[in-house]
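Figure 2 data, in text form.
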Amino acid sequence: MTNKITQLFAVKYPIIQAGMIWNSGWRLASAASNAGALGLIGAGSMYPDVLRDHIQKCKKATNKPFGVNVPMLYPNIEEIMNIIVEEEVKIVFTSAGNPKIWTSWLKERGITVVHVVSSVKFALKAQEAGVDAVVAEGFEAGGHNGREETTTLTLIPMVKEQLNIPLIAAGGIATGQIMLAVMLLGADAVQVGSRFVASEESSAHLAFKQVVVDAKEGDTHLTLKELAPVRLIKNKFYNEVQELYKKGPTVDELKSLLGRARAKRGMFEGDLEDGELEIGQISGLIHDIKPTAQIVEDLVTEFHQAQKSVEKIVF
C-alpha cells in the first residue's frame, strides 16, 4: 500500500491513529506504529513533563515512526514544542490554531508537519503555511470539531479539488470499506480515532470504552459551539447543557457549566454521568474492544476485500 503518505511517514499502511486527548498515550501510539500504522501521542491532555515521559516510553516500545498531536491552544505550547525537538520526534500533527505560527519553526528543525482542518478554506491556509500534508476532518468526528458541519463525504472531494499536497481523511472512519470510500474520493490516507478508543491499549477508562461499544445511532451530538464545538455521547452532563440552552445562556454561563477537567473525568476517570464523553458518530459501528494490532489488520483486510467487491459492481 505504498503511496504519498506511506512514503512521507515511512510507514507500511496509510493509516494514522489519531492523537486524541485522554485516549492516545504511549501504549496506543507504539502499538499502532508497531502494527504498520502511524501512531500519535495526544499532547492535549498532558503537562509538559508527562508528554516527555510518554515520548521516551514510546521510543523504547517501538523502533517505528510515531508522532505527536499538538492542539495549538495549549497554554504551555512553547515548552511542548521544545520538548518535541529535544526528544527528536520527527512528525507533528497540529490542530486548533493557526498553522503559520509553528509550521516553519518545526520544519526548520527537520520535522514533518501535518495540520488538521475542517474546511476547504483552512486546508488552503495550511497549505500556504507550508505543511507537508493536511487532515480534513468531517462533521462526524468525535471530540472538537468544525463549526461548518461539513460531512467527510463532501469535505474530502472539495478539499482534494483545490489542494496540491497529500490529503488525509478523518471523521467517521472505522472500517476498511469506509477507508476505501474516502480514498476513492481523493484521500491519500485515513486518520482513525473512535475505533482506536475502543482498543486494549487506549488510555481511556474501561467504562468509557464500554460506552463506546454500546453506543447506537443518534447517541452522539455536536454541541457547545459557542466555546469549541465538541461531539459528545448523550449523558447527564450533555442533558444539563441542553437544558441550559433552553434559557439562552451567555458564553460565561456555558463556561461555568463546563468547568474544568470534564473530559478527563469522563474519558480517563470513567465518570459516565458528569464527565465529557467525546466520541464520533461511527461509534454505532464499533462493537468490541480489540488489540490495536488487530484493529489495523482488520482495516487492511476489509480494505482489500472492499476493493474486490467494487470490481463486481455493475449497472
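Caption note: Residues 194 and 290 are 12 Å apart (CA to CA).
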